[in-house]
Amino acid sequence: MKRPAPRRTREPTIALINIVFLMLVFFMVAGTLAPSMERDVELVETAALEGRAPPDALVIAADGQLRYRGTVLTSASAYLDRPDSRDRAVVRLMPDRALPADDLLRIGAELRAAGADRIVIATTRSLQ
Fold first, then answer.
1. CA distance 114 to 119
2. CB 116 within 8 A of CB 89
3. Maximum CA pair distance of the chain?
4. pTM of the model
5. What sections of the protein cross the membrane (predicted)?
């Protein structure tokens, strides 16, 4: 009588594939929970700075147009006059890369005159 051939044990690859797929779905969902940035604005690049995502930033387009959460504002001081619970001492700016520096300085001075104590400019990190 012949002995039956020993059966090979199978590796649990299906379980591993399921775990990797669930992690992929988790990170896709977690990445879409953050509010999206204005699509037509390219940020200035900087190197070696620590930063964090600006939750409520005043967006400045290349032509100097000011936007807050998609709403066009008439002036920089109108950003501080909005009736919400936002901290008025710290203002976060997201200027377009093509915005002239003179316009950025003018807007910063207008915000300071309107009562902003600190102005933070959001940039992208350079890979150099």
1. 12
2. yes
3. 99
4. 0.54
5. 12-34
Query: Which H or E run contains 45?
Result: strand 45-46
> Given the structure tokens 């005159």, which residue do they identify?
113
Q: Which amino acid is at 113?
A: A
Q: Tens of pLDDT along 52-80?
A: 545 578 888 888 888 887 788 888 878 87
Element (H, E) at 85: none
Residues 6+ apart with CB under 8 A from 23: none
Element (H, E) at 18: helix 13-31
Q: Count H helices, E strands: the chain?
A: 3, 7
Strand pairing report for 71-73 and 66-68: antiparallel
Residue 107 burial (C-beta neighbours within 10 Å; 0-12, 13-18, 19+): buried
